[in-house]
Amino acid sequence: MSEAILEVKDLCVTFHGRRRDVEAVRSCSIHLCAGEVLGIVGESGSGKSQLSLACMGLTAGNGDVSGSIRLAGQELVDADKEVIRDLRGDKIAMIFQNPMTALNPFYRVGEQLADILRVHHDMSEQEACIALERSFTEVALPDPKATLRKFPHQFSGGQLQRIMIALAVSCEAEVLIADEPTTALDVTTQRQVTDLLRRLVDEHNMGLIFITHDMSVVAELADRVVVMRRGEIVEQGAVAAVMGNPQHEYTQLLLASVPMLGDHKSKPPGTVYITQDDRLEADAFLEVSQLSKFYPTRSGVVNALKDVDFRLMPGECTALVGESGSGKTTLAMSLLHLLQPSAGQIFFEGQEISGNGREALKEARRNISVVFQNPYSSLNPRMRIIDIVGEPLRVLTDLDRAAIKSRVVESLEAVDLSAEHLRRYPHAFSGGQRQRIALARALVLEPKLIILDEPTAALDVSVQAQVVELLNELRARKKVAFFFITHDLALVERLANRVLVLYKGEIIERGTVEEVFQNPQNDYTQKLLASAPRFESFQQSIHPS
Amino acid sequence: MSAEDQKLTLAEYAGDLLKHNRLFVVGLVIALGFFLIALMAAWIAPHDPLAIDFSAKLASPSAEHFFGTDVLGRDIFSRVLHGTRTSLLTGVLVVSMALLIGLPVGLVAGYYGGRIDMVLMRVADVFLAFPPLLLPIAITAALGPSLYNALMALAISWFPWYARILRASVIAVKGELYVKSSQAMGMHPVRIMLKHALPNSTTPVIVQASMDFGYTILAAASLSFIGMGARPPTIEWGLMIASSRSIFLEYWWTAFFPGLAIFVLVWGANLLGDGIRDLLDPHYSDKR
């Protein structure tokens, strides 16, 4: 292999807090060669982002960097700010997790990007535009000429990420750092972006540092991998070696937690019936019929939902799969009666709740609860856990304080928390624990249905796996039905019995998970399944024969 | 960061304040000082502030009369001490009355949005459309000049600021999932507003209110100065300056000491307000 273009030795990044210092990166050494993809894997707080920011000279003001970073023979630690600024956008470039915020919405795409090229490469405006057009073509953006004149909001997330990649390409950067570049994108788009990155690395002989929490992406994309935890490198080496034969137990844990299609590590419990009679009747307790939601816009009507109908069976987990903008959240909001549908009905145990039947609605609310995606926003920071979890009881029942407390404790214990947490505030808990608290709040009324809106999306993979297990166990024990909204097919396989595929506001495929996953009928479902990480191909990439 | 890291003992906290936020401590000392003076004015004042003594009229500052005497021979030092009560009361009353009107308006407008928001905010805009002191002058002129009418008038012209600030942060909090989650439970809107929306959006209002404390004292003194506020025999700094209008070129102490008192109190209140902002709203504070 050729000589290293980026070499990091004994890098430490320390942040000086008011109370104590935090060592974000502790003597880490990595190297990157031209034409190579280095994957850095770790969970939140592992220091993977701080490591890469230090390479860009972008460590925040209260951080100290020590050690050595050599880029193409030039030392970056303690180098002049001018020197580093010249290197950025020239030899080294970075793309970020959220492409929506990486571009200034005030300027046209062409103006912003051409500026960077003019500064670093002494190009004229015209030369810069030509260079950009060429790279837009290379990253397969439709109509490169028009792209220059458009504003950032006119592009989708995947397109914006391509634009950022195109910028790095036209800068002829030798090192590209990509910090979770696909996390904010839909699955089908994710696959396109990683494929594109791999192609560019090969064609331009770039070095790519790919930071992610997702082992399956690394397995497919990277040549070498670095596993980080709490600021330290726990394991590094060639992908096949590290993943095929992980030495460190943390690497093993990470590998075991990756959700992939077809690994059958955990299976959802079957339909759990409440009594024998239910089995005989097997009646749907929630029925949605011809549900539609339109939003009038200046250029006509947007159909967020179009004639959606389905039934939910008691004790079953039904997954709703779709990409962003497919109407998943609109549907959930309608079920929760937070949005008034434009047409159609929702029946709960035979009673219509979409109209204005107050009593029926109250009864339904007692039986349908919700867990949202982001546990950092779903708990009121000014309330104690006992009040947060007990709130549904106070609002919807006439229980006294003592009864509420005992129900809250019961509910907390069901999610593996305990009574000692009652008096604490949400900030004292981690993301996984917060999601458990949100789940305890959803359980406290002993509802018949819990709507789970991407409940694991904001969590680290190892925590995700725990939450998935907890959910399966709860469903079996509490005999509650789940309506599970997600974009992650691997999770569907682990959690759900039935699946609905939503595309542009319409349900295009439905059935049991086995039927749909083994034999998808619709084009879109097939594409979706093809882009999900698969256990077999993962095995293949780490055990090349 | 875990909970343990954020807990500071009181002593550490005070030490932190002294180290990073000295001006806040200065403001706090000034405000506390005036507060004590206001409480104990009757005991620490060497003379009766209302006692007229023509034999000692317009005496210059001396050991007997620290700040001299006014045109009626009243002791200015004692009058300044007693005037502290009026000024502090002014600040507290105006700000709290303005909050009392502004907070519900902002909360309802922000939470419900739409037409309700539109109506409430346009009404608030009407009050904001007048130049700052003109509206209180007009209102007091209509109600008849007295200290309490002036305070009422100030509060009425002040409340739209609080309404607007609270409305803006309520709109932000409304998008949080814990609000959605309470709505999904079918919680009563009033309860959601009081339990979820209000507690999580008061910080900017508290900051603004603490900064306004000084301005309202200044505004009340100005109203008194032009004869639209306190009336004799109420002891008020602005009024004291007004009564020395024709003579202060020769007898400077008649205007200087009440003026100094206004300056120190308002300056202290502003420092206090700045400090509270730094404490509650780290976005604005300088990098440490």
List keywords for this structure.
heterodimer; A: 545 residues; Rossmann fold; six-stranded mixed sheet; 21 helices; 25% strand; B: 288 residues; MetI-like fold; 12 helices; disordered N terminus
Q: Any chance you could write out the topology, listing elements then pairs?
A:
The complex is a heterodimer of chains A (545) and B (288).
Chain A: E1 4-16, E2 21-33, E3 37-41, H1 48-55, E4 63-71, E5 74-75, H2 81-87, E6 92-95, H3 109-121, H4 125-138, H5 144-149, H6 157-170, E7 175-179, H7 187-204, E8 207-212, H8 215-221, E9 224-229, E10 232-238, H9 239-244, H10 249-257, H11 276-281, E11 286-297, E12 300-312, E13 317-321, H12 328-335, E14 343-348, E15 351-352, H13 358-367, E16 368-371, H14 385-396, H15 401-414, H16 431-443, E17 449-453, H17 461-478, E18 481-486, H18 489-495, E19 498-503, E20 506-512, H19 513-518, H20 523-531, H21 535-542
Parallel strand pairs in A: 3-8, 3-9, 6-7, 7-8, 13-18, 13-19, 16-17, 17-18
Antiparallel strand pairs in A: 1-2, 1-4, 4-5, 9-10, 11-12, 11-14, 14-15, 19-20
Helix pairs in contact in A: 3-4, 4-6, 6-7, 7-20, 10-17, 14-15, 14-16, 15-16
Chain B: H1 3-6, H2 10-20, H3 22-44, H4 76-112, H5 114-128, H6 134-143, H7 147-174, H8 177-184, H9 189-197, H10 203-225, H11 237-243, H12 253-280
Helix pairs in contact in B: 3-4, 3-12, 4-5, 4-7, 4-10, 4-12, 5-7, 6-7, 7-10, 8-9, 10-11, 10-12, 11-12
